[in-house]
Design goal:
The protein has eleven helices and 19 strands. By secondary structure, it is an alpha+beta fold. The protein has two domains: about 130 residues, Beta Barrel (OB fold (Dihydrolipoamide Acetyltransferase, E2P)), CATH 2.40.50.100; about 220 residues, Chloramphenicol Acetyltransferase, CATH 3.30.559.10. The longest helix has 18 residues. About 15% of the residues have low confidence.
């Protein structure tokens, strides 16, 4: 009998998906839970696992095809007794039917070998689990996954594990491996400098994520009246507080104390004072949110993603740092879920980690505002009538002028500045 492998249910905001890559070929034996195919959506890459043990009988959608929810992707030939490819013992291949028209398709050599081979010892029966981003990198670089130790749950190999493995081999073949990893092709050699004077070009189709990001950014520019207001914050009080308690914080909570938790807390207090910044436009209606779900922009192998930290007003500094750390790991691993990327009432983007000194962040629709953090630089400033050197950061707030007045936007940003320059305010909520 055959089982249908279908596209899983997609959220309302996602219309379709693209077949990214098949991990099995027709005739290959598979176990329940094995990743059969990756589907790329506007937000995440989905793994479609095998629902039962069996042999992949037929693939009905090729890589690159656009598919809809519940569309049949492939057929999986299963054993009627449910014993195919299990650890109970070596299964037997059913005898051919007397009628040629009813005979089951002959398995491939690999499948036949798998069916007749002696099962592995129990300690080796569980297949190695590899994250989608790591699997693509291993395939790209033609690496042996057996040599890469996994640090994820149940030994799951993450992209960071592959990179660590590459770092160990960098002394032997650094250029070849690092060149293969780069997501953007290396620029061609300049004419006349080690080349033949040609003017090569390369066309690379946008990923669905990149295309969706482009669509949303253009939508934001066309539908919202975007303005940006700027300020600067003296980061010395926060820096001194971090330096004073970071070791104790790490011992007690098992994670480092970063700057982002201070910004999230400061943003929550500012949103409470200026609810319109936490609101959204819905046609001719303004929707005021009574909760504080803040999107934290993080970089992933597929581009920028903005997972949502829910109910930030109810989270401690440790909760915030843990949530952000989890988002970073999932973004690298490609395991962020739809729920983690959906919703949000306000966003924070930290271009400073890439060296940005000043920028104008673009709204993340339907949100009405976004805070931009930047690099901390020591600059001469006047404090109490004296010129001194302080670690300063430029802050930028982009907002939708359709519902947010300039006065509210400026005072909102000043509230964040005050919270950062006097962190006790964040604890006392004053």
């Amino acid at each position: 009998m055959s089982a249908e492998i279908r596209v899983p249910a997609l959220p309302e905001s996602v219309a379709d998906a693209t077949v990214l890559a098949w991990h099995k070929r027709p005739g290959d034996p598979v176990r329940q839970g094995d990743a059969l195919v990756d589907l790329e959506t506007d937000k995440v890459v989905l793994e479609v696992p095998a629902p039962v043990d069996g042999i992949l009988e037929e693939i009905r959608t090729a890589a690159g095809e656009v598919v809809q929810a519940q569309q049949v992707l492939a057929l999986l030939q299963t054993d009627p007794e449910g014993a195919l490819l299990t650890e109970a013992g070596p299964p037997t291949v059913p005898a051919p039917s007397p009628s040629p028209s009813a005979a089951p398709p002959a398995p491939s050599p690999a499948a036949a070998a798998a069916l007749t081979a002696t099962p592995a010892a129990p300690s080796q029966a569980v297949d190695m689990v590899i994250a989608p981003a790591a699997r693509r990198l291993i395939k790209e670089l033609k690496l042996d996954s057996d040599k890469i130790p996994g640090s994820g749950k149940d030994g799951r190999i993450l992209k960071s594990d592959v990179m660590a493995y590459l770092d160990e081999r960098e002394k032997e073949r650094p250029r070849d491996e690092l060149r293969a990893f780069r997501s953007v092709p290396e620029p061609p050699e300049r004419p006349g400098v080690g080349g033949a004077g040609e003017r090569p070009e390369q066309r690379v189709p946008m990923t669905r994520l990149r295309a969706r990001v482009a669509e949303r950014l253009v939508q934001a520019q066309h539908t919202a009246a975007i303005l940006t207001t700027f300020n600067e914050a003296d980061m010395q009080p926060v820096t001194e507080l971090r330096n004073r308690y970071k070791e104790r914080f790490e011992r007690q909570h098992g994670m480092r104390l970063g700057f982002m938790s201070f910004f999230v807390k400061a943003a929550v207090e500012a949103l409470k004072r200026f609810p319109v910044v936490n609101a959204a436009v819905d046609g001719s209606t303004i929707v005021y949110h009574g909760y504080y779900d803040i999107g934290i922009a993080v970089s992933s192998p597929r581009g920028l993603v903005v997972p949502i930290l829910r109910d930030c007003d109810q989270l401690s500094f440790a909760d915030i740092e843990q949530g952000i750390a989890d988002f970073g790991n999932k973004a690298k691993d490609g395991t962020l879920s739809y729920e983690e990327l959906t919703g949000g009432t306000f966003s924070i983007s930290n271009g400073g980690i890439f060296g940005s000194l000043l920028s104008t962040p673009i709204l993340n629709p339907p949100q009405s505002a976004i805070l931009g953090m930047h690099a901390i630089k020591e600059r001469p400033v006047v404090v109490n009538g004296q010129i001194c050197v302080r670690p300063m950061m430029y802050l930028a707030l982009s907002y939708d002028h359709r519902i947010i007045d300039g006065r509210d936007a400026v005072q909102f940003l000043v509230t964040i500045k005050d919270g950062l320059e006097d962190p006790a305010r964040l604890l006392l909520q004053v």
